[in-house]
Amino acid sequence: MTTAKIKLRITTCVKPNRLILKYLKCIVSDVKTYSDVNYEVIERKKLTIKNLFEEDTTPVMVIQQTGVVLYTSVENKIFYHENTTRVKYKAYITGNHVPPLIELIQDDSINTDIIIDATTGMANDLILMALTMENSIFYAFEDNFYIHFAIKWGVHFYFNVLEKNKIDISRIHFIYGSVVNHMGILNQADVIYLDPMYEETVVTSNIASLVNVVTHDIESDRKLLNTIFEHFKGKVILRAHFKSSLIRDYQFTMNVRKQTKTHYGYRYL
């Protein structure tokens, strides 16, 4: 049986400068390394996003002055943005508040040299961890190619161009696929974080664009957790909706927060 290849178009803003053309070259060089992706570089000319989708529904990545955006349709786009990360980080560095995720990671009983984010999504929690854990190396896994590729290059552009030197991006390794298929990495880390955010859909502006391109499968979450529980030794940190069956079934100790539907919890293995 032949698996259908993923399709992607790549283009720039209407008036690209040298920096945009440099990123175009880098992105094209990178996409060539994905054996299951068919890509096409298209000349933008003066075409609008609507024009780009009139005769072709293939998702298109656009390299703009303000960042890298991947349109899965005229109405739906995926791109990295800090969302509440900036606010959380500012509160952290001023000493006003330690985010619950960071509180769970800053654990003297575990080694934080290598941290796995098993469900990258929009990467907001990943970036918060990278900002606060300045000596850690991160492996960020994402099963959906479009989310993986858009966020990977969105983060690169954001922190190399728009917020230059705020984070050393070389500390973050974005990996397309599941940590289930990378046991070597799983065995190196003592901390793994996962956020199966689609089990109980919480409609927010931050993840709405992802909900449109991902079909959630609770069995995939269970396969991931079963593999982690079988092969991983360390601290598992879970972010989950308060109704999530994963909390009960895998016996996570949750840090319940008032005024929010999602909570962070942990389990030592």
Automatic annotation (TrEMBL):
Annotated Pfam families: SAM_MT
Gene3D superfamilies: Vaccinia Virus protein VP39 (3.40.50.150)
UniProt xrefs under InterPro entries: 16SrRNA_methylTrfase_J, SAM-dependent_MTases_sf
Superkingdom of the organism of origin: Bacteria
GO MF annotations, alphabetized: rRNA (guanine-N2-)-methyltransferase activity
Descriptive protein name: Class I SAM-dependent methyltransferase
Organism: Macrococcoides goetzii
UniProt lineage: Bacteria, Bacillati, Bacillota, Bacilli, Bacillales
